[in-house]
Amino acid sequence: MTTHAVIFAPLGQATRAEQVVERLTNAIVSGLLEAHEQLPNEADLAKSMGVSHITIREALNTLRTKAYIYTTRGRNGGSFVCQRTQLIDNEHPLQQISTNYLADLGELHCAIMKHSISLAIERSTAKEQQKLEEFIELFFEATTPEQKAHADMRCLLTIAANAQSPRLAQQALSIQTEWASLIAMLYQDNEIYQQTVKTYQQLLHCFSQHDDVNATRLMGKMILALTENLIELKFTIERKLVE
Q1: 20 with 11: CB under 8 angstroms?
Q2: How high is the pLDDT of residue 6?
Q3: Which of 17, 31, 37, 7 is nearest to 142 (CA)?
Q4: Do residues 5 and 23 touch, judged by C-beta distance below 8 A?
Q5: Residue 72 buriedness (CB in 10 A; 0-12 / 13-18 / 19+)
Q6: CA distance linking residue 154 with residue 30, whole number of Å
Q7: Which tens digit of pLDDT belongs to each residue from 124-163?
Q8: CA dist., res. 59 & res. 21, Å (int)
Q9: DSSP character string of 76-131
Q10: CB 148 within 8 A of CB 184
Q11: Other CB atoms within 10 A of residue 66 CB
């Protein structure tokens, strides 16, 4: 299962345009659907997501109104993802999120990814593992905090997709909408970024050895450490606001 297959998988309730909007918004916010990437046409979207053309049209209209997508006419026309360079700063201000919320988000993310990587090591094919290696390499090569966060998100979602559980992958995608935006703030600190790089190197070794026990431990340790760093960053921001 690829990350795009997760995005465009059938919906549980085929008559709700809100579900289409939520899923595509999640993919755009987290960077899974990149700026200026073309969406499938209405007919293909309706077929792949298991909804009517009217539902897809309503959802796309909502996404256009919110400036998540734009539409062009002509032979090469269609619906495309908007450039949203200010998304992280404007839509995910860390100081507006409670400490309890951050802790709960981290625990849920940890649980989902620990189970995902255990299943991925058991179920993923050699080709799927190679794709994961490519995404991890892109994470190593990223330079800006936003690029690092989006590359990290792709690694995590690829692991979730390789677990071969559509419901698990959708849960991971939903969490990444918030997680990737918050993590970009952390990756301004090179030490935190380098520690995550080191963990991904260890996780690749676990895949090569089919070592799901250590992979699960490393994944949990990585996400909980990032959660603790987010909480500490929140405290730092709040102290600065008071001073």
Answers
A1: yes
A2: 60
A3: 31
A4: no
A5: exposed
A6: 9
A7: 999 999 999 999 999 999 998 878 988 998 999 999 999 9
A8: 5
A9: T-EEEEPP-TTHHHHH--GGGS-HHHHHHHHHHHHHHHHHHHHHHHHH--HHHHHH
A10: yes
A11: 12
Q: List the one residue out of 197, 203, 192 whose CA is nearest residue 228.
A: 192
pTM for this one? 0.69
Type of residue at 1: M
Whether the CB-CB separation of 110 and 118 falls below 8 Å is answered with: no
Count the residues in the chain: 243
Neighbours of 137 (CB within 10 A): 14
Is residue 166 a contact partner of residue 1, using CB atoms and an 8 Å limit? yes
pLDDT greater than 70 at residue 87: no
Residue found by looking up tokens 């090179």 in the block: 190
Predicted confidence at residue 90, as pLDDT, reads 42
Q: Which residue has the higher pLDDT, 85 or 53?
A: 53
Q: Which residue has the tokens 């001073």?
A: 243
- pLDDT tens by residue, 196-215: 999 999 999 999 999 999 99
Q: Which residue has the tokens 């995910």?
A: 92
pLDDT band at 23 (very low <50, low <70, confident <90, very high): confident
